[in-house]
Specification:
Length: 66
């Protein structure tokens, strides 16, 4: 994720290009909810639905949860 999880504009968002050639802003924490491949766990330990709640790095803690 270090190649994609970059807060370039200070808003907790990054632009993503999808397989259908659409582009949209994606929240940095939302990156863990995208299906990167068919076996990627979109409800894994870095999502708000997981118990216990994830511990984000300090610079990401104020961003929206997904």
């Amino acid at each position: 994720m270090r190649n994609f999880c970059i807060d370039r504009h200070g808003k907790g968002m990054t632009n993503c290009l999808f397989r259908d050639f659409s582009v949209r802003a994606v929240g940095l924490k939302e990156l863990w909810k995208l299906e990167w491949h068919r076996n990627f766990d979109v409800n894994g330990s870095w999502t708000k639905d997981h118990i216990p709640q994830p511990i984000w790095p300090e610079w990401m803690q104020g961003f929206r949860d997904y």
